[in-house]
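During the reporting period the student researcher (J.K.) took over the structure-prediction task from the postdoctoral fellow and processed the backlog of single-chain submissions. One of the processed entries is reproduced below for the supervisory committee.
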Amino acid sequence: MAQESSEPQSLTHLDSQGQAQMVDVSGKEATRRQAVAAAQVRMSVATFEAIETGNTPKGDVLGTARLAGIMAAKQTSQLIPLCHPLPLHKVEVQITPDPQLPGYQIQASVITKAETGVEMEALTAVSIAALTLYDMAKALSKSIQIESIRLLSKTGGKSGDYCISEDVGSTIYNKNNY
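J.K. obtained the following structure tokens:
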């Protein structure tokens, strides 16, 4: 898997005058592309236990957050100005309890066959899932923290494959799950 290059790259979303532009991907071949992103949500033990036992005022916190993440991935191009609208073939959001935080680890995997990648869709999915988890549980505590939103891996495309280095990896990421 490719790692980050230390050499400066040109910014494809800027034209020769430095103006923001949508990248022209019309000359690229549509290929299978996948991205996996993660986030974590940290909270008090009491809030974590209330969610785990289903004792929350707003109902199914985790189910609602998971669906919100899936829906958000499908809306990414409407939320981030220069993202291309893409046909998403699969969006999976997993929310796993982590008593050590205490809180939850969130992962999203997004797959398409298109001319550009789905990193932003995966990152949007985990971000909105985390925000929804906060919204659903804020009546229990306002001190919930959303942390460590990051891309874990991506495959396909001209830039090749990428996988986060082990020393900064997620505690639950397992590329064999996707």
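The committee noted the following: The mean pLDDT is 86.
J.K. will present the remaining backlog at the next meeting.
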